[in-house]
Amino acid sequence: MAFSRFAKRMDQLKASEIREILKLTERPEVISFAGGLPDPELFPIRELQLIAVKVLEEHGKEALQYATTEGYRPLRDKIALRMNRTLGTAWTADNILITSGSQQGIDLAGKAFLDEGDVIFCESPSYLGAIQAFRAYGPEFVEVPTDHEGMDIVQLRELLQTTQRAKLIYVIPDFQNPTGRSWTLARRQELIKLANEFDLVIIEDNPYGELRFEGEPIPSLQSLDTEGRVLHLGTFSKTFCPGLRMGWTAADSAIIPKLVLLKQGADLQASTISQRQLDAYLETYDLGEQIVKIVEVYRKRRDTMMEALRREMPADVRFNIPSGGLFTWLELAPELNARDLLVRCLDHNVAFVPGGSFYPNGGHENTLRLNYSNMTEERIIEGIARLGKVLREYTAELQASPLSI
Ligand SMILES: Cc1ncc(COP(=O)(O)O)c(C=O)c1O
């Protein structure tokens, strides 16, 4: 077999570290803060059981048949209405494309907008799955320094002024993966201004916005956009369940047909039966109530993890207190390496994702991401205690090593 015959783009791609690590953490004894998994105990299994039967009984033939690429119209109507209510947009079903998870929306946007050598700006750090999807289209990644208020807009402007082929900007303004941070309204407004000035397309990826533990929602980038340059990616993975693979892209009516063409080539359409089931669920039950339940559980887990971190971490470890979403982000002393720490932690059956993998251009090896949604409070307390112990041992060993002097 001609393994030398792969396309050039394959040289850029390497196995996702998260997936490799998840394999190691599948053992039940591992307390894993590694994945980004919702808690399966919260999946509405009984409701879906009833819905699945109902859909097959009432619309079996349609539910098992091919359907349009754009997606099931009643579902697109509901998504448009929901967005208009919660995110301040003014969409109709024609602005919504149903995708196989929001991950597919990322991929389609990359395919639609990126030529090889184009520049894509992203937060530093950013979501690994997006970096991987975009990488296949051969762009140059420019990381923009990001703090507790969002991207540093002054630096973004400077970077834009010196960049020839600026095209796309990919951001997660609400409870970001991996840091858990959100952007302020002012930063959002400034980003829109810059995008207008430099003719950029913005991808606003928003899987976590509805998982808010406290405070008021901040207007979405798409609601601030007056030029149709923001693509908003949504998903039911974190508010409902990821297994149905139900996501969507909301965009100006000039953009959606282009994405439809690409989706036709990718997979013809999202699963008809998943769309029908989701639509029937939204028709019969109140997703808002389901989200309230999820938020209550995750808020407690966030609190438990924050208390445990305050108790167990050495004083020089900095961590973010997220107001929503699934993650927090740790910065260790600069001489520490989170990959080495992970290897040690796995010996003690505790896992996380080293932060270096979230930087498209590498570096920042002293950072790490912790997920709190998929472990019970008891396991969070135990896992953070183990992490603290291993971290202290590792730090002490480094300090004792002659190389560190
Ligand atoms: C920021 C971000 N975008 C997109 C996705 C993809 O989610 P899905 O394809 O399940 O909608 C994830 C999943 O964790 C994510 O964290």
UniProtKB/TrEMBL annotation:
Q: Which InterPro entries match?
A: Aminotransferase_I/II_large (IPR004839), Class-I_PLP-dep_aminotransf (IPR050859), PyrdxlP-dep_Trfase (IPR015424), PyrdxlP-dep_Trfase_major (IPR015421), PyrdxlP-dep_Trfase_small (IPR015422)
Q: What cofactor does this protein call for?
A: pyridoxal 5'-phosphate
Per the record, the domain of life is Bacteria
Gene3D superfamilies for the chain: Aspartate Aminotransferase, domain 1, Type I PLP-dependent aspartate aminotransferase-like (Major domain)
UniProt keywords (A-Z) are: Aminotransferase, Pyridoxal phosphate, Transferase
Identify the residues that the record assigns to the Aminotransferase class I/classII large domain, covering every copy.
58-387
Pfam family of the protein (one) = Aminotran_1_2
Q: Which GO terms describe its molecular function?
A: transaminase activity
Q: Which residues form the signal peptide?
A: none
Q: Which PANTHER family is this protein grouped with? A: AMINOTRANSFERASE, KYNURENINE_ALPHA-AMINOADIPATE AMINOTRANSFERASE, MITOCHONDRIAL
What protein name is recorded for this chain?
Answer: PLP-dependent aminotransferase family protein
* Organism, scientific name: Paenibacillus baimaensis
Species lineage, top-down?
Bacteria, Bacillati, Bacillota, Bacilli, Bacillales
